[in-house]
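Internal ticket - ligand job 248, S-adenosylmethionine:
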Amino acid sequence: MNLTIDVIGIGAGSPAHLTLEAVAALGEVDAVFAMDKGAVKADLLAARRAILDAHAPGARLVTVPDPPRDRDPRDYRATVEDWHDRRARVLAEAIRAALPDGGRGAFLVWGDPSLYDSTLRILERIRALGVDFGTRVIPGITAVQALTAAHGVTLNRVGRPVLTTTGRRLGERPAGMDAVVMLDGGAAWLEHADPAEEILWGAYLGTGLEILRRGRVGEVGEEIAAEKARLRAGHGWIMDIYLLRGAG
Ligand SMILES: C[S@@+](CC[C@H](N)C(=O)[O-])C[C@H]1O[C@@H](n2cnc3c(N)ncnc32)[C@H](O)[C@@H]1O
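stdout (structure tokens):
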């Protein structure tokens, strides 16, 4: 069939994050595949639709219902594996049905495809199901970059490492190491950060809802947690990220 699938990083929230390379790639695609995550994330699907209207008016948007997933499983890895498998199956069908011989499809990936995103892994699974295609990856601006730019800081302090981790695993951080934390469903800083550490927090970065907070965890931590809960309840969803910097 000679198919190509582009995996296009679209940046972390602002349409202005799109690179010229991403815009050029969008102009070449026949169909864009997206998982429909239901009404809660409808805002995110709308953001994708706006990008397509602006840069790929000729492309079909093929939305595929996202298979349900247990959000609090006993065996996290096995549950995610199974979920990716089910996603791969529905997407394989959609790709077969939507792309003509020699066609080019695309997945738009929030931020950059290399960072906490499973699109490239799922494409491997789709290939294993017998759908043959080449892949091209277009890098995008990550939420990490959106956060550091919004706060006007460098990610790493001079000569120091930075751990990239999730809220779930923040407690495993080596003592004293700076960390950038993503995918925090709650407020892990309250439990796992030192009160003297600085938190540089950002939510809905790059969007009209963008909000930033910065201060010592002991001084602003509770307030940010309450604000996060309020925002999530108000908008129905939240995406936030933060940098923790030790006192030393
Ligand atoms: C599944 S990861 C995807 C990361 C993405 N591939 C990237 O390069 O930024 C989703 C997490 O990224 C962070 N994130 C993505 N976009 C964001 C935004 N606009 N504002 C704040 N955090 C964001 C949040 O921590 C969210 O839980």
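Auto-summary: DSSP finds seven helices and ten strands in the chain. The helical segments are 20-26, 42-55, 76-98, 119-128, 143-151, 188-192, 217-235.
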